[in-house]
Specification:
This protein is α+β, with helices and mostly antiparallel strands and 151 residues long. It has helices at residues 2-28, 60-67, 105-114, 142-149; strands at 49-53, 72-84, 87-103, 121-127, 133-139. It has a five-stranded mixed β-sheet. β2 (72-84) and β3 form a beta hairpin. The radius of gyration is 19 Å and the shape is elongated. The chain starts with a helix and ends with a helix.
Length: 151
């Protein structure tokens, strides 16, 4: 009885991992899971671009999985914004701590896909506290997303 339960548990675990990996591949890597609603600005002639991240993209392992390569990072601050849940909003006396990733054009395309550019987020250029110009992902307001989804 115990052996059967153990085998059943492992079969269930392997199935869950396979489904999770398939979902992740379909959503973030396959040519089928994402059609950008916004034309991304990516200049392939620029070998490296800076991206300011303030949420989940601060995790090294997640960036590695998404981009397929590690990224150089450094601590940074975005002044004039405050963090609210999954977004940053303008506020004169506030600041958002984060990191700057230096990425290739292909890695930037992978980040755009992860952030669902044009569907959930838009990518904007900002000036950081140290004077660096970097991309940042900002949440598209719910009502604008709903309007864009209607034919």
């Amino acid at each position: 009885m115990t052996r059967r339960l153990l085998i059943g548990f492992f079969v269930l675990l392997i199935t869950a991992i396979a489904i999770g990996a398939g979902y992740f591949w379909y959503t973030f890597m396959s040519p089928y899971g994402y059609q950008p609603a916004e034309t991304a600005v990516i200049d392939d002639r620029v070998p490296e671009q800076d991206v300011f991240v303030y949420g989940t993209l601060r995790y090294d392992w997640l960036r590695w999985v998404i981009m397929g390569t590690p990224a150089d990072t450094r601590d940074a601050t975005l002044k004039g914004y405050r963090r609210q849940d999954l977004d940053i909003l303008p506020q004169a006396d506030a600041e958002v701590p984060g990191e700057v990733l230096t990425v290739s054009p292909d890695a930037l395309k992978a980040l755009d896909r992860y952030e669902r550019l044009g569907i959930r987020y838009t990518r904007e250029s900002v000036k950081l506290e140290d004077g660096t110009i970097a991309w940042v992902y900002r949440r598209i307001p719910e009502q604008a997303r709903a309007a864009a989804a209607q034919p």
